[in-house]
């Protein structure tokens, strides 16, 4: 018998809770069922699949490789059902569906908003949700179906089997400081000049931090004095405004905030190799037409913004 025909939405929640709690008793209590009944259901499911989904230990349950795979699908299906309900309610209220976009600070100030404005012009009733975070966090949400598209720096992106990706434009890095900083307006700066000041840097593992580390490696330099590690664009701008600290930024982001009198780029070149901003979306057999429209708006905006 095809075991997938017997699965219901409640069963997906059971699998997810078993993984999260590692406990039959806790899951039974949370899902308002009995532990013997839950144990019997799990045993029958494993027999139908022909492989164990959880390893039994003294401390509880731990998903096997097949269990992890099934639970990943379960999480994605539960998320899709939640979003389907949300979109159906929006249609009943006279609105269109909601498109969820994840973006890193490297593309948030002007590029992504410009693309969304173009998208809204095509779909006046559509709703758009924007989430800003680090790329790894956003890509995980994309795989789970919590986001439709992720836009950001793809410098150290590792291809994922469930996702498609596309480069949109090249994006070098710039060192920035507040207007009026002692180094602002000086020409021919070198690393020794920069080492005289504290730095605000992005967390390890983020694309911008990786490119900074690469630039330091290529220059044969040790890390400068990192005073603050932060992934908050607003917080970083505030700290720059009221100190002599330095930071690193994508060129378009630096240009955006320079035009508003918030920062100035310093006259030093970072040799860190090419950097790119791109977009990722799920590789689906039947892609959502409205998501395809958003991807096209991003492509068209990439050719216009900053050129």
From TrEMBL:
Gene3D superfamilies linked to this entry: Periplasmic binding protein-like II, Winged helix-like DNA-binding domain superfamily/Winged helix DNA-binding domain
Which GO cellular component terms, listed alphabetically, does the Swiss-Prot or TrEMBL entry include? cytosol
Q: From the Swiss-Prot or TrEMBL record, what is one GO molecular function term? A: DNA binding
Which ranges carry the HTH lysR-type domain?
7-64
Family matches, as InterPro entries: HTH-type_LysR_regulators, LysR_HTH_N, LysR_subst-bd, WH-like_DNA-bd_sf, WH_DNA-bd_sf
- Coiled coil: which residue ranges? none
Q: Which UniProt keywords apply?
A: DNA-binding, Transcription, Transcription regulation
Organism domain of life: Bacteria
Belongs to which family?
A: Belongs to the LysR transcriptional regulatory family.
Q: Can you name this protein? A: LysR family transcriptional regulator
Name its species. Answer: Zobellella taiwanensis
């Amino acid at each position: 018998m095809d075991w997938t025909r017997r699965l219901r939405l409640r069963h997906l929640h059971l699998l997810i809770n078993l993984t999260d709690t590692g406990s039959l008793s806790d899951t039974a209590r949370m899902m308002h069922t009995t532990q013997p009944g839950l144990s019997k259901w799990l045993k029958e499911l494993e027999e139908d699949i022909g492989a164990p989904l959880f390893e039994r230990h003294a401390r509880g349950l731990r998903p096997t490789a097949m269990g992890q795979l099934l639970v990943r699908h379960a999480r994605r299906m539960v998320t899709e059902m939640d979003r389907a309900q949300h979109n159906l309610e929006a249609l009943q209220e006279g609105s269109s569906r909601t498109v969820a976009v994840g973006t890193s600070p490297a593309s948030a100030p002007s590029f992504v908003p410009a693309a969304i404005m173009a998208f809204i012009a095509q779909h006046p009733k559509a709703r758009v949700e924007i989430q800003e975070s680090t790329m790894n966090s956003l890509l995980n949400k994309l795989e789970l179906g919590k986001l439709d598209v992720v836009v950001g720096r793809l410098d150290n992106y590792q291809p994922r089997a469930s996702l498609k990706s596309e480069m949109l434009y090249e994006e070098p890095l710039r060192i920035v400081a507040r207007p009026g900083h002692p180094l602002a307006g000086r020409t021919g700066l070198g690393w020794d000049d920069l080492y005289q000041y504290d730095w605000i840097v992005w967390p390890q593992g983020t694309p911008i931090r990786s490119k900074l580390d690469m630039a330091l490696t290529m220059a044969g330099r040790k890390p400068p004095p990192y005073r603050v590690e932060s992934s908050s664009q607003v917080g970083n701008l505030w700290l720059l405004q009221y100190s002599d600290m330095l930071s690193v930024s994508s060129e378009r982001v630096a240009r955006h905030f320079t035009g508003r009198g918030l920062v100035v780029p310093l006259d030093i070149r970072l040799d860190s190799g090419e950097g790119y901003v791109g977009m990722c979306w799920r590789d689906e057999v039947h892609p959502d037409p409205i998501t395809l429209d958003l991807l096209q708006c991003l492509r068209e905006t990439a050719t216009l913004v900053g050129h």
